[in-house]
Structure to design on (87 residues):
């Protein structure tokens, strides 16, 4: 289920026709300061469950902010990790 902030996410059916594949905006064009787990995982080329494990075990390369029990991942920190430490 997507929130209003995630309405810009579009889905298409993959080649197998099994389930929708999300298409997130490019990280360079992202205007939000934090994103949900699915979006962060997409940008980092990881499965959402990997990011949830990082949050739970507190052993990943970045830590999420918890907002009302949900995980919010910093876009700035994701950019830094993807650029090898430089924003």
């Amino acid at each position: 289920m997507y929130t209003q902030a995630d309405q810009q996410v579009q889905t298409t059916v993959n080649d197998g026709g099994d389930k929708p594949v999300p298409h997130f905006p490019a990280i360079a064009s992202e205007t939000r300061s934090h994103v949900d787990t699915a979006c962060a995982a997409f940008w980092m080329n990881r499965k959402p469950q990997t990011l949830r494990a990082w949050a739970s075990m507190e052993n990943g390369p970045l830590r999420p902010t918890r907002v009302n029990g949900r995980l919010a991942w910093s876009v700035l920190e994701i950019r830094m990790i993807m650029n090898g430490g430089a924003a």
